[in-house]
């Protein structure tokens, strides 16, 4: 079966996912596109999806009988409405992070999917599919003993002018919020945020960098440095300290060079390149499940927990270092 996929939001990642579905992966085809900026959908049609129909609204695309499954890759604040419409139509839906920009929005999606009675949603937490994180998880699960601490860093070389302090949580650190919970098989109970001296590239609405300290139910303490104007490159670090040893996330492959009287190797600068292989794996997983009329991988529940945790972290940004509690509701059986 070829899964007929419609893409809502054809900007940077929507275009890239459409390309990989039509030109890299198997079992699916892009048949529909929609974007509030129609020119963007037209350009993606011209470049990577010549057979796709263009729809005026995301809702019309979801309702089309020619669309079997949906990719939601529009701006974060618009995800909830489209995911709810896809669930109402009973169609598998891949939603880029964040699933919803508020915990209430995440709950509405979980409630709708539970009422539907079958998983339909996969959230785009692609790091769970990254070979480095998968290998790290194997070691954490079996070799270094129970995790005690995690030291992580998420550094972007620069962010656009409209990027403001809370986005460091719900746009950027949301990846660590999900992947570290998965890596440790644990849940968070509190969050604290510490701000060092603001870097010179901060501005009135962006205080950068920041350190988020999460405590888990099993007592692991995690520190995540988020530095979105670090200037030197796109750099993701993760070190797990266990009872018996320490495990590090491997850096991406780079050729070590001796050049100009220096030892050096390249550091990536664009997030698109850092996890490029994992996007292929996550979407292939989505296609396989969609062909069976369902979804697997990171779930609405994971997206909802990430939204609850981000809300707590954003509150903690204004709490002058005090801990903000993270209280999770009971997990519905659908997600066990
Ligand atoms: N998993 C990842 O690593 C990753 C990476 C980048 C972006 N993202 C997420 O993907 C989403 C899109 O990010 P991007 O970088 O592609 O942004 P973008 O601005 O390049 O593209 C978003 C597109 O959505 C369109 N759009 C906005 N509102 C819409 C609506 N209501 N209906 C239809 N189209 C609409 C815009 O016109 C734009 O073309 C964001 O939620 C972002 O957080 C995830
Ligand atoms: O949308 C992007 C993307 O999710 C990247 O992985 C992250 O590093 C950026 O901070 C964020 O803006």
UniProtKB/TrEMBL annotation:
Keyword Oxidoreductase applies: yes
UniProt KW NAD keyword: yes
Gene Ontology MF terms: inositol 2-dehydrogenase (NAD+) activity; nucleotide binding
SUPFAM superfamilies in alphabetical order: Glyceraldehyde-3-phosphate dehydrogenase-like, C-terminal domain (SSF55347), NAD(P)-binding Rossmann-fold domains (SSF51735)
Entry EC no(s): 1.1.1.18
Domain Gfo/Idh/MocA-like oxidoreductase N-terminal: 3-125
Signal peptide annotation: none
InterPro entries (UniProt xref): Gfo-Idh-MocA_inositol_DH, Gfo/Idh/MocA-like_OxRdtase_C, Gfo/Idh/MocA-like_OxRdtase_N, MI/DCI_dehydrogenase, NAD(P)-bd_dom_sf
Parts of the chain that traverse the membrane: none
Domain Gfo/Idh/MocA-like oxidoreductase C-terminal residues, every copy: 141-317
The entry's keywords: NAD, Oxidoreductase
Catalytic activity entry: myo-inositol + NAD(+) = scyllo-inosose + NADH + H(+)
BP terms from Gene Ontology: inositol catabolic process
Protein family per UniProt: Belongs to the Gfo/Idh/MocA family.
Function, as annotated: Involved in the oxidation of myo-inositol (MI) to 2-keto-myo-inositol (2KMI or 2-inosose).
Protein name (record): Inositol 2-dehydrogenase
Species, as recorded: Rhizobium quercicola
């Amino acid at each position: 079966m070829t899964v007929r996929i419609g893409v809502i939001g054809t900007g940077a990642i929507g275009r890239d996912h459409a390309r990989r579905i039509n030109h890299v992966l198997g079992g699916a085809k892009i048949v529909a596109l929609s974007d509030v900026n129609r020119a963007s959908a037209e350009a993606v049609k011209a470049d990577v999806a010549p057979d796709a129909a263009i729809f005026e609204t995301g809702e019309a695309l979801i309702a089309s009988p020619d669309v079997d499954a949906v990719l939601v890759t529009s701006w974060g604040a618009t995800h909830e409405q489209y995911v709810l419409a896809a669930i109402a139509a009973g169609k598998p839906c891949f939603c880029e992070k964040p699933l919803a920009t508020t915990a209430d929005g995440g709950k509405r999606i979980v409630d709708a999917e539970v009422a539907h009675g079958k998983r339909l949603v996969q959230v785009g937490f692609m790091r769970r599919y990254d070979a480095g994180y998968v290998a790290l998880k194997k070691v954490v699960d079996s070799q270094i003993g129970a995790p005690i601490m995690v030291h992580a860093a998420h550094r972007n070389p620069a962010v656009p002018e409209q990027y403001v302090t809370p986005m460091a949580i719900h746009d950027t650190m949301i990846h660590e919020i999900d992947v570290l919970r998965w890596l440790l098989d644990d849940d968070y109970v509190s969050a604290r945020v510490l701000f060092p001296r603001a870097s010179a590239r901060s501005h009135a609405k962006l205080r950068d960098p920041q350190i988020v300290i999460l405590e888990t139910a099993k007592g692991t303490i995690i520190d995540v440095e988020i530095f979105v104007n670090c200037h030197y490159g796109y750099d993701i670090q993760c070190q797990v300290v266990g009872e018996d040893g320490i495990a590090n996330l491997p850096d991406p492959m780079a050729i070590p060079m001796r050049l100009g009287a220096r030892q050096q190797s390249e550091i990536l600068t664009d997030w698109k390149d850092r996890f490029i292989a994992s996007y292929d794996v996550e979407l292939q997983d989505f296609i396989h499940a969609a062909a069976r009329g369902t979804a697997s991988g990171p779930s609405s529940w994971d997206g909802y927990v990430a939204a609850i945790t981000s809300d707590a972290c954003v509150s903690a940004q204004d709490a002058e270092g005090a801990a903000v509690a993270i209280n999770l509701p009971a997990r519905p059986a659908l997600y066990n």
